[in-house]
Task: inverse folding
């Protein structure tokens, strides 16, 4: 008998709807399974529901590989990887963009596995014990299917701790990536540090938003010179996109990370717009307060903060963070100015985020229109059966 887990009566419902997570509280009995094992997931009467992997250490005690009764072998992983890669080939204009997400974990039927492409290199993350156990197989298949110069691992993420795993970083196949890889996004050029940068090196999920925001700001400020404040700039993704679309835009980049700002400067230089950039190292909350006290104003402000809410317990303080930063931004905008504001906290719904932005506007005594609602790029797909895969939301607002 293969290792099996049996759910409590009634707890099979989400699986019938193809939700890929089984919380520890839903499990009645574990039969012969140790952590990391491939297991059959069965309902209370013993009927097969799905095949996945088990880890008693995690609150998400099992994750589904498949809802079909098929072996989890090389052919399975090959088919899943091929499906994900084919989907990206249809989504991404590879003539203008060569950095994008190839595999987005659960959304691509590969729970715990992230695969990003950066030009000739591939960067991977294995987030769970069950995924870690399949690392060698998956890396071999990626080498075969993509023939990259190298595959680099960036499994230095906090979630691994919950799985009982240490961080793991380094070359898994082929050549080590250089300290900076040059990538192309929407026909713009960027340096990416895949070995030390955030996530796998670049916020690929904002690719489409960078292009759309650049268009909104161009339309909004027309031919006039415009002052843009790019808060939480990281390596200048929005700054380069905005400057490239609008020859009159000047952008102040603000971030706590000196390395990120250095790369932002290099990225603006790479696209011939460094003369229109400023780079301020500091805490966004403090700097925006100082600007407010100095009476500074901007034509547009972009807020793309890190995740403020990781757990339900952080909800109140996280929402306060969003409210405060948006309130300060509204106060710093000229009438008719544009606020582009994001939240990447999955726990904060789009509706709740909009409410917080509304409260911020009210407190700043500003009225505003929503010009657009933004989400994550489609190479980070939201799986309908798995609403948890939706995390990034943004609003483009114009004060009136
Ligand atoms: N907009 C960026 C991604 C932003 S990621 C892009 O398109 O690439 C969030 C950034 O916020 C990180 O670079 C991080 O260093 C920075 N950050 C985190 N806390 C901060 C704070 N309190 N003040 C300013 N920057 C902060």
Result:
């Amino acid at each position: 008998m293969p290792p099996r887990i049996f759910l409590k009566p009634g707890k099979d419902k989400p699986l019938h709807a193809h939700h890929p997570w089984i919380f520890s509280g839903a499990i009645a009995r574990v039969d012969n399974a140790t952590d990391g094992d491939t297991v059959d997931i069965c309902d209370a009467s013993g009927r097969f529901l799905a095949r996945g992997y088990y880890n008693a250490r995690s609150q998400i005690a099992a994750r589904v590989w498949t809802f079909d009764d098929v072996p989890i072998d090389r052919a399975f992983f090959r088919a899943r990887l091929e499906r994900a890669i084919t989907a990206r080939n249809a989504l991404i204009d590879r003539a203008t963009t060569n950095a994008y997400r190839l595999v987005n974990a659960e959304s691509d039927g590969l729970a715990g596995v992230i695969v990003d492409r950066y030009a000739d290199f591939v960067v991977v993350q294995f987030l769970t014990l069950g995924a870690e156990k399949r690392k060698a197989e998956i890396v071999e298949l990626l080498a075969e299917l993509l023939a990259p110069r190298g595959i680099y691992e960036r499994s230095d993420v906090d979630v691994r701790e919950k799985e009982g795993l240490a961080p793991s970083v380094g070359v898994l196949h082929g050549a080590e990536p250089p300290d900076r890889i040059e990538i192309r996004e929407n026909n713009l050029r960027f340096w990416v540090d895949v070995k030390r940068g955030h996530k796998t090196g670049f916020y690929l999920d904002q690719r489409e938003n960078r292009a759309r925001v650049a268009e909104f700001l161009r339309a909004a400020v027309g031919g006039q010179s415009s002052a843009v404040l790019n808060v939480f700039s990281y390596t200048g993704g929005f700054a380069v996109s905005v400057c490239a679309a609008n020859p009159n835009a000047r952008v102040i980049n603000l971030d706590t990370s000196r390395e990120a700002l250095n790369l932002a400067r290099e990225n603006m230089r790479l696209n011939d717009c460094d003369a229109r950039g400023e780079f301020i190292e500091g805490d966004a909350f403090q700097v925006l307060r100082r600007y407010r006290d100095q009476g500074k104003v901007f034509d547009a402000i972009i807020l793309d903060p890190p995740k403020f809410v990781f757990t339900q317990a952080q909800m109140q303080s996280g929402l306060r963070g969003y409210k405060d930063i948006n309130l300060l931004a509204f106060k710093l905008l000229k009438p008719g100015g544009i606020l582009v504001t994001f939240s990447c906290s999955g726990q904060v719904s789009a509706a709740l985020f909009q409410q917080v932005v509304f409260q911020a506007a009210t407190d700043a005594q500003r009225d505003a229109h929503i010009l657009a609602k933004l989400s994550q790029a489609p190479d980070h797909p939201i799986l309908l059966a798995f609403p948890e895969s939706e995390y990034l939301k943004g609003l483009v607002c114009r004060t009136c």
Residues 203, 206, 232-235, 237-238, 254-257, 260, 283-284, 304-306 surround S-adenosyl-L-homocysteine (CB under 6 Å). The first strand starts at residue 4 and ends at 7. The chain has a mean pLDDT of 97. DSSP finds eleven helices and 20 strands in the chain.
